[in-house]
Amino acid sequence: MSAAGVVRGRLVGADSGEIADGVIEYADGVITWVGGASEYPAAEELPIPGDDLVVPGLIDLHCHGGGGFGFPNADAGGGRVAAAEHRGQGSTGLLGSLVSARPDVLIRQAGILADLVADGQLLGIHLEGPFLNATRCGAQDPAAIIPGDPALFERICAAARGTVRSMTLAPETAHFAELLAAMRRHGVVPSLGHTDADAATTAARIADAIGGPITATHLFNGMPGLHHRSPGPVAACLAAAGRGDMVVELIADGVHLAPETVAMVFDTVGPDQVALVSDAMAAAGLGDGDYQLGALDVRVREGVARLATTDGVPGAIAGGTARLLDVVRPDSAGREGSARRRRHRRDPHAGPGARARRSRHAVRRGAGRPARHRPVIAAAAGARRRNGRNLMEIVIRADEHEVATTVADIVGGYVARGNAILGLATGSSPLGSYQELARRCRAGEIDFSTASAFLLDEYVGLPKEHPQSYFSVIRAEFVDHVNLDPARVLSPNGEAGDIGGEGRRYDAAIAAAGGVDVQLLGIGTDGHIGFNEPGSALTSRTRVKTLTEQTRKDNARFFDGPDDVPHHVLTQGLGTIGEAGHLVMIALGAGKADAIAAAAEGPLSAFCPASVMQWHRHVTVVSDEAAASKLKLADYYKYALANKPAWQSF
Description:
This protein has 650 residues and is α/β, with parallel strands linked by helices.
């Protein structure tokens, strides 16, 4: 881009949908105006509309280099050149991918790439190895592939200074469980790949990782092919992606995969479960020639990179030479796959800092800046959301006791993994579940000592020592009855001097903790969750809300009278709630029947805030018979539960 100008075309935003004839105005690399052409202040000076498609910046989760330099062996200067090559071609953010190498090399390169992350050149580091299966090494040095070594992983993470975002490992590698636990502690997304595992082993490892994001590294490549009698890891990964449990990488460059294969995956699992990646190496952006990928020599001929050989036999494909924009571009020769047919859908790679939001005066200053310090876990986890299908699971139990048992089973599963982040709600709905969890804790069946928790909301102006503050209520009803450290239970500060700033602070605290693993929710008779009353924005954040008179009347039973109920509350917004990994809604009694029917089977609407769950990737509604009495598909929900596979958890 030059210093200033305008771009006109069809604008596709990450959140705002599509503007058929849109305009972006920019100056000095910063977007200064976004909106419809008819709304542009100097509309008469606009260029004649063409067929350009304008999309948010792309995020490449798997990239080994470009511009003649590879991240596995480049110094800081070379790394900057590689990052700039991709940034100049539409990838506003990328992970720098390393390959299997000697430990000292991995530790050295992790330190170099960490400096590039700190400088805003990269979003983070992707470790593609060394804990792979050497029989499926692809273009990696088999001599550098070793069994899983948690101690080495810790050394690499220390050198990377918290910038490792993803690691590819084989499901069958040694010490998988210890590595998975370490990855979760460090906020590293596990990615299964370079594997010879069977379907059962792969499915088991995916099940172990449920509760956090997980991906598959370049599906089909570096693993056995799909066979009708030996389905292998491909089938397990496709099944998991179809359930919303996994995001699968595809190198849709026309070399690694046939366009028909790419189309099949999109049609099978949906676009929100696919992350298109470049897997680019040093040759990206350059012509044919000789290059390196780690310690191995690579020869590029006619745009295809292969390991160099001396016997004339073509070597293994050694990464890509395309940039991510080449992969997703609808008119790329032979590569359109499903991208052309679905380009009206949101781009799962869209970076939050590059979003074009529709507004009459449109202003998202700074939106065009290169990404800096942006947590890429959101790119993997967020790509799993809003897949256009209702993945809500309705569990109908006979009575309140069975509901509490089911909810305790779900929460207990997260707590058992260690370091769980719980989202706690107050009110009558979760009370039985808290009592069951407390019973299990007293019996030694569950240990909350490593868990933390965030509360949904707090009354504004009510001291936290007040017996009806949610801070006090959650302690009296739950925290004081289990071995959960009260200091690790956080709530919004309803007495903060800057209430607006408190909402932002609270959201930041949740994000800094790594996000909520499992969020408990009740539902109001009008469909509200938290204190997001009808009409609340579906993307709202933690903020002050004015309570409706009906909600104040509902809560009057906890106070001396209706007049004592505060008028305002600081509550997590629907957008904040939706960032939790798993939403568990508890519904009890016939009074909730209309609300549950509207939330689960009605249209997505701000006038039933709980309906936003239909967009979430992992929702379990646990209801008694009375609350489920108006569900049209109640019989089906019961049938599905009765026939739920033994391996499938809630």
